Structures are given as structure tokens and as C-alpha cells.
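Thread: protoporphyrin IX containing FE complex, take 2
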Amino acid sequence: MELTPVPAHIPPEMVMDYNLFDDPLFAKDLHSGMAELAASGRDLIWSPHFGGHWVVIGREAAFEASTNFEQFTSDPHALFPELAQTRQIPINMDPPEHAPFRKVLTDAFSPRAVMGMQGNVEALARELIDAIKHQPGCDFASAIAEPLPVKIFMKVAGFPVERFAEFRQWVLTSISEGDPAKRQAIMEKFNEVTRELLAARRKQRQDDLISTLIDADFGGRQATDAELEGMCLLLFIAGLDTVTNGMALVMRHLAMDTELQAHLRAHPEHLNSAIEEMLRCYAANTFPRWVAHDSAFFGAPLRRGDMVLVSLPTANLDPRGFANPTAVDMDRKTPHLVFGAGVHRCVGAQLARIEIRTLLSMWLREMPPFRLDPDKPWKYHTGFVFSVDSLPIRWD
Ligand code: HEM
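Output below.
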């Protein structure tokens, strides 16, 4: 793709040829490259890819860009009303419009509601582990990390679980596809299935999230079908690949760190803090904001309408925020930014944690020590979510 000429107002030292979908930095074992960029001490860079955009690298700048919704809008349609892309609700909304939609989702994924999903997560984790435990190894991505969150989501939301393979393919394409027109086409396919499901549930409610959303109170009214579609689309995009990759990246670390594996087998009470730290070391999300008005930000001359990508893989490895950032330090106190910050902080963090914890604690209890398969290297690709395509592991 053609590079955009650097506009005159961009300081040359801030320009870096960084391509989120394919960068030489990612060839360095993915997060090693991210640690290198984070260690450069830069807060922001300007990339000539995709029409030109900013990338927030540093931890403090990432926190500011995520939380300051007056300077950074999450709603590109407010700046570019002609945008054809479907609005994802509530992530493409700013306060106060955002609040009632957010409230319904935080209720649906509250710690109590998520505890109610625990049984399903345990049963599925059991089924998936049983299917591979008598083999000498497996591709952890396709055997466990992909089916677990996608099937849980489909079941909780009310989508037909027998269409799993199709859904998973849509998730992969929608996240990894650099061409906006192709991404939009996938979203349209998903919206079509959502519309069918909405029509069925409007006739007859069931015990699922779609039915709950239809009847929910969105600030004194019910949501329209278009709004419900936007919410489902976001849950689909935000909640599936993220868990798959978080889980696979955590597992990859454990496969390389047999000492930590042994420690967690002996001390399962440390599992929660180990998971938080591994999620931090291998953060996978980069998400956009748009500049609401001309302003200066950590030395960057921002112009209204500029796109700013907040890079969590670098922000969570910034040595100015995390001493010895690539080490898994279970006593670390600094809060990480893996689930974002501010009004859009991840609604599904609790569900994601339960899925990862349930799987890992069952795995560490029942499976022998495991390691990366020396004959089959892992495969990954990058984009708004760093995606693990395959993770071959072995055990004795
Ligand atoms: C390890 C797994 C996950 C990670 C790393 C993750 C990460 C994030 C991040 C960084 C944001 C903030 C984006 C922004 O500020 O623009 C976010 C928002 C969101 N996430 Fe997650 N997520 C995960 C799992 C989930 C799951 C399982 C669900 C679904 C239940 C979910 C639903 C959402 C929603 C709905 C939002 C938007 C919230 C809002 O706009 O108020 N996420 N997530």
C-alpha cells in the first residue's frame, strides 16, 4: 500500500515507518520487538501507513489517550458522518450517549452474571482437555484457545453453536484483514445472522443474552434493532479473538518457562497474579481514537480528525511504568492496561479472566509438564489484535 507523504507540521523525529499489519519489528518473536519499541522512550510516533496516523507507545500517554474522551473521541462518525462502517455500540460512542448502553452490558457481564457462566466454561474446558490429553501434544490454538471463548460466547449470546467454524473464520478475518471493505463484508454477514436471531427472539424469548438485551432498559427506552445489531457486532469482535490470543500467549509463556509451571502447580493460589502478569507481558490489543480538536499531546501536534492508535503491547512493556518489563513478576503492584482504561474499559474482563483461569488451573492439575514443540514453530499475525494462528506444544 502507498505511503502517505509526511505533512509539514509533523516533527521528522516522530515519524516511523510502522505498519501494524506487517512490521519488521514483529518478526522478532512479536513481543521482543514491542519491548524494544517501548524501551525507545518515545510516547508517540507518526506512521505514514493507512493514510497516516499516530501510534501511542508509552504507558502514561496510552492511559491519557484512553481516558480523555474530550480530546480523543471514540466516535469517528462524529467527525466523518459519511463513514459507511457500522457503528459498534458502545465502543464508538462518547459520554453521555455511551452510558446507558454500557450499563446494560456491565450488568450482563457483572461478576455475579459471569459466575453463572462458570459452569459452562468448566464443562467446555473439561471436554476440550479430555479430547487431547491422551496425545503426546496438540496445537493449543485450534484445540483449546479458539473453541473455548467462541463457543462460550455463542452459547451465552444465543447464537447456534453448530455454526462455530463459520463464526471463528469470521472472527479471524475481521480482525486480521487490512482492507476495510473486506472487513465490512464480514461484519455484514455477521449482522445478517444477528438480524435472524433478533427476529426469532422477538417472537419468543429464551434464556440468553440476546433476549436480555431486547428487554433491557436503555435509559428509559428499549434499544432499536439497529442498536442491538451494533452491540452484538461489538461483542463478537471484542470478545472472541481477544480471549483466544490472551490464552494462547499466556500458555506459550508457560511452555517456555517450566520453572513457573512447576511453581504454579505447587502454588495454585498464585495463579491469578501470574495470569495478570503474563497478560501484561503479552498484551495484544491496539485500538483507535480520533482527535476531537487541534491540540498538543506529549509533544505531538495533533490535528482534528487525526487517527490515534493506542498500542497496548508497547504501553504494557514501558520500562518507565514497569521496572524490568518483560519479567513475569507476581508481586508487581503497578496496574496494567491490558483491558484499557476509562469509560470504555473492557466489559468482558471478568469473563476473560474466568475462561483463562478455569482452563489453566484444570490444565496444570491434570496435564504433565509441557513445552513448545521444537519441530513446529508457532505462527502468528498482527493487526488490531495480535493473533496466534497455531501454537504446537508437547508433553511426555
Ligand atoms: C483477554 C481478553 C480481552 C482483552 C485483552 C480485551 C481488551 C479490551 C480493551 C483494551 C478494551 C478497551 C477498548 C477502548 O478503550 O476503545 C475493551 C473493551 C471492550 N471489551 Fe474487551 N477484551 C477482552 C475480552 C472481552 C470479552 C470476553 C468481552 C465480551 C464479553 C469483551 C467485550 C468488550 C466490550 C463490549 C468493550 C467496549 C466497552 C465500552 O465501550 O464501554 N472483551 N476490551
